[in-house]
Amino acid sequence: MQIKPILSALRRHKAGTFLIAMQIALTLAIVCNALFIIQQRIAHLSERTGIDEPDIFVIECEWVGSPTSQQADARMLEDLRVLRQLSSVQDATPSNSYPLNGGGWDDGIKLKPDQLQDSSGTTVYLADDHFIDTLGLKLIAGRNFRPEEVARIDMRDRLAAPQVIVTKALADKLFPNGDAVGKTIYLAGNPTTILGEVELLQAQSIDRWAADFAYRSVIVPRRLAASLGGFYIVRARPGQLDAAMRAAPAALFEHNPRRVINEQDGVLSFAQVRARAYERDRGMAILMGVICVALLAITAAGIVGLTSFWVGQRRKQIGVRRALGATQRDILGYFMTENLLISLGGVLVGVLLAIAINLWLVTRFEMSRLSMAYVLVGVAILLLLGQGAVLAPALRASRVPPVEATRSV
Amino acid sequence: MFGYYLDLALRSLRRNKMLTALMVLAIALGIGASMTTLTVLHVLSGDPLPGKSGTLFYPQLDPQDMDGYEPGKEPPRQVTWIDGMNLLHAQRGDRQALMTGGAVPVQPTQSGMDPFYSDARYTTGDFFAMFQVPFLYGRGWSASDDEGKARVVVITRTLNDKLFAGKDSTGQTLRLSDTAFRIVGVLDSWRPNPHFYDVNMGNYAASEDVFVPLATARELRMDRNGSMDCWGSGGGDEEHLETATCVWLQFWVQLDSPAKAAAYKDYLVHYSQEQKSLGRFERPVNVRLPNLMEWLDINKVVPGDVRLQTWLALGFLLVCLVNTVGLMLAKFLRRAGELGVRRALGASKREVFMQLLVEAGVIGLAGGIGGLLLAFLGLWLVRRQPSDYASLAHLDVSMLLITFLLAVGASLLAGLLPAWRACQITPALQLKSQ
Fold first, then answer.
1. CA dist., res. A28 & res. A41, Å (int)
2. Residue B218 sits at the chain A interface (C-beta within 8 Å)
3. Which residues is B173 bridged to in the sheet?
4. Would an 8 Å CB–CB cutoff place A397 in contact with chain B?
5. Residue B117 forms beta bridges with which residues?
6. What are the Cα distances from residue A404, in Å, to A4, A392, A401, B433?
7. Cα–Cα dist B72/B69, whole Å
C-alpha cells in the first residue's frame, strides 16, 4: 500500500482530517483518564474489611429517657444476653463503630509518653471478649480478652485500658521486628500493653483522610455505655441472616421497648453497609463508564459520517482507479490506511493530552499518576474503533463499479 | 430573508436525516451532560447569604503550643472557649456569635409522642440577626439571656409543625434533656446552602431543629457534636471544656465595611500578641480573617467528585462540538454545487454565510431542547443519589437560559468554520464541473 498518494489526498481535506484527528485525540485523552478513575474506584471498593461479611449485620439502638451510663450498661448487657440466646444468632458484640461505618473514634499512638509526634494514627474499636469471634477476625498472635478484662466506659471517660489488641498492620508499623505482643504503647496518652494481634481489620472510614491508617486499628476491651445508645454487631448462624435480622430487633423490643431502632437504617446487613459506604465511588465509576461509551460512540459516528462523505465525493476517482486496474481490496485498503494514518496522528496528540490532563488532575484532585498501561489500552481501543467505523463506508467505496469513471456526474 | 433561510435549512436537514439526527444527538448529549453537572456545581457553590456574605468573617487564631509548628501553616479552623469568649465580649464587630453543634433529646409533653433526638445548635444570641434567619413567630434571645444562661429555645418550623401542629408556640414549654425550656421563637423555613456556619456537620445538611443559648447548653452538659482538636495536655473531657486546650467552637463576626474588617484584623493581631505576652499563646502571631465565601473555598466545601464530573462533562461537550464541526463541514461542502448556483444567481458570500449559519442555529436549537430534556433526566438521576446535596439539584431559570445560550452559541460556533469554508467556493468552478 502506497502511503504517499493518501497523504497528498489528505492534504486536500485539511480541515476534515484535522477535525477527525482532534476528535480522536480528545476522546483518547478523556477515555484514558476516565478508565483510570474507574479502575481506581473499583480497586478502592474491593478493599477488604477483614471481617466475615456474609453473616454479619449491625443494629443501631438509641435509648429513650437518657439513662445514666450505668443504666445504659445494664440494658446493653441484657440486650447482648437476649441476642446471644436467639437460635438464628451465633454471637453478638457491642461496639462504638464498625468498618465502613464512616465515622467513629480515631486517635494517635506513641511509643514513648514524651514523644511529640504520633507514631501512627489508628481507629479505636471499643469491644468486649466476643468481638473477635463475632466479626470472624483471625487472631494470629497473643490471646483474646477475658470477660473480666472488659469494663464499662462512658463518652466522657478517658480511654485508659491496660491491654489492647492491635491489627498486624499496626503492629508491623510500630514494631517492625514482629514482636509486638507484650510491648507497651501509649494510646491517647495512656500506657497500654499489646495483648494480641489480629490479621486484618479495616478502619471505620474509607475516606482519603483515613488512608494513612486504613488497616491500623486497635481493639480496646471497653463497652461504650452511652446514654445516646450504640451499635450491636451480630453474627447470624450460616444461612440464617434474614431470619436473624428479623428476629433480633423483635426480641430486643420485646425485652425492653424503651429504645429507638430506626426503621430505615437501624438494622443493616453488612452487604448494605458496604453498598452505602461505596455508593459514591460506584456512582462515579458508572458515570465514567457511561461517558466513555457515549464518547466512543459519538467519535465512531463522526468517523462514519465524514468518511461516507469523502467516499461520496470521490466516487469518480475511485471509478478511475478501478478502471485502471485497482482491485476492490485496493480501494478498501486505501480507506482503511487513510483512517489509520489520521488515527495515528490523533492518537499521538491524544497521548500527550492524556498525560497533560492527568498531571493537571493530580494537582487539583489528589489523584495518582496515570499508568502507561491505560494509555496503551486507550490507544488500542481508538485505533480499533477507527478501523471498525471506517469499514462500512470503505466497503461501500470498494463496491463502486469501474464504469463510474465514464459518468460525468 | 430569515424565513427563506429557515425553510432552506429545514429542507436541507430533512434531506439527510441520519446526519442531522447525529448532529442533534451529539449536541444534545454534550449539552445535557454539561448542564446536569454545571447545575449541581452551581447549586453547591452558591452563596448561602447573597448580599450579606461579604460582611461575614470567620476569624482564625493560632493558640497551639510549639509541637509540630510549621511557619505559615493554616491556624486551626475553630476556636477555644477562652478565645471565643474573649472575642465575643470584646464586641469589636458589628455583630458576633460563638457556637457549636449538638444533639438533644426532645421530650414532648403531648400524649402519644415518644421522645426523640434532634440536632441542635448552641449559640449566642446574635446568630439570628447576623445570618438573617427568618422568624415565623417570636424572636431570638438577648445578650442578657446568654449571660443569665436562660432556659430559652428557638425551634424550626418543621419541629413546630410536628409538636404544635404549626400554631404559634412562643411562650410554651418544651422539655429538652429533662429541663423545661421556654420557646421564644419559631423560625420560618430556612436552609442555607451550604451549611456554612459549621462545615463539620455535613456541608449540605439541613439546618438544626433546636437552637439553645451556648452557656445554657454548657451548664446542662448537653451532648455536643462536631469536630474537636486538642494539643498539649488537653483531652476531650466534657467536664472541663471551658479550660481545655482544645478548639471546638465556631466564631463568626459581622463587619460592615472593608475598613472595619482591616481594623478587626489588626485587633486579632493585637489580641494574639497580648495572649502571647501572657504566655497563653506560644506560636508566632498567625491570624486570618477569611470572609464567608473564602471560608467555603478553604474548606473545599464543593466535593472534588462534582468538580471532576463537571470537567469531564465539559470535555465531553468539546468532543461533541468537534464532531459536529466535522459533520457540518462535510455536509456544507457536499452542497458546493447548490451553493455555487446560488452564488451565480447573485447571492453574496455574506448571504450564503448567513444561510448556513441559520442551518447551524436550527441544529443548535434542536440540540438545546434535547439537551434540556437530558439535563432534566440527569438531574432526576442525581436527586436519586444518596448524597446530602441530592435534593438540591434542580434547574433554575438562570440555568435554563444558560442551557439554551450554550446550546445555540456552541452550535453557531461549530457552524462558523464550515460556513466560512463553504462560502469560499468559486461559483464558476462548481458550475463547470457539472
1. 20
2. no
3. B182
4. no
5. B105
6. 24, 20, 6, 15
7. 9
Chain B: residue nearest A114 by CA?
B232
Alpha-carbon gap, residue B281 to B62, rounded angstroms: 7
What length does chain B have? 434
Report domain extents, chain B.
2-45+302-433, 53-298
What sign does the dihedral B234-B240-B243-B248 (CA atoms) show?
Answer: positive
User: In 3D, which of A314, A384, A372, A311 has the Cα closest to residue A344?
Assistant: A384
The 10s digit of each residue's pLDDT in B359-373 is 888 888 888 889 889
Give CA–CA dist A357/A335, Å, rounded. 32
A334 CB-near residues (< 8 Å, 6+ apart): A1, A6, A394, A397
Region A212-232: mean pLDDT is: 87
Q: Domain segments of chain A: what residues?
A: 3-45+280-406, 65-257
Q: What percent of chain A has pLDDT over 70?
A: 98
In terms of DSSP bridges, do strands A106-110 and A56-63 run parallel, antiparallel, or are they unpaired?
A: unpaired
Cβ distance of B68 and A116 shorter than 8 Å:
yes
ipTM of the complex: 0.78
Rounded to a whole number of angstroms, the distance from the CA of A141 to the nearest CA of chain B is 32
Instruction: Find the residue in B nearest to A279 (Cα).
Output: B386
Q: What is the rounded distance in angstroms from the CA atom of residue A395 to the CA atom of residue A329?
A: 9
Which of A154 and A353 is assigned the larger pLDDT? Answer: A353
Task: Check A313 against B316: CB less than 8 A apart.
Answer: no
For residue B330, list chain A residues with Cβ-Cβ distance below 8 A: 16, 305-306, 309-310
Query: B148 CB near a chain A CB, below 8 Å?
Result: no
- Whole-number Cα distances in Å, A16 to A55, A66, A93, B33, B369: 60, 74, 68, 26, 28
Buried b (16+ CB within 10 A) or exposed e, B171-183: eeebebbebebeb
Residue B227 neighbours by CB under 8 Å, 6+ apart: B78, B200, B248
Q: Could you read off the pLDDT of A249-262 as tens digits, one per residue?
A: 899 988 888 888 88
Contact A155 B434 (CB under 8 A): no
The three cell numbers of residue A298 are: 459519538
CB contact B204 to A (< 8 Å)? no
Kindly list the residues from chain B whose CB atom is less than 8 angstroms away from the CB atom of residue A20.
326
CB-nearest to A313 from B316, B318, B334 is B334
Bond prior to B194 in cis (omega within 30° of 0): yes
Percent of chain A surpassing pLDDT 90: 37
Which residue did the predictor score with more confidence, B47 or A216?
A216
Q: Residue B233's closest CA among A105, A110, A121, A189? A: A189
Residue A67, helix vs strand vs coil: coil
Which residues, in sequence order, are CB contacts of B274 under 8 Å at separation 6+? none
A261: Cβ–Cβ under 8 A, 6 or more apart, which residues?
A: A59, A60, A61, A62, A249, A252, A253, A267
CA distances from A169 to A118, A175, A213, A218 (A): 16, 10, 9, 10
SS3 B386: coil
Nearest to A23 among B116, B117, B323 (CB): B323
CA geometry: angle A65, A68, A73, nearest 5 deg = 105
From CA B123, how far away is CA B156, in angstroms rounded?
Answer: 15
Q: Which residue has the cell 489480629?
A: A198
Contact B323 A312 (CB under 8 A): no
Percent over 90 (pLDDT), chain B: 24
Q: Which amino acid is at A341?
A: L
Interface residue of B113, B322, B421, B430 to substitute, partner A, most A CBs within 10 Å: B322
pLDDT at B290 over 60: yes
- Is the pLDDT confidence value at B434 over 50? no
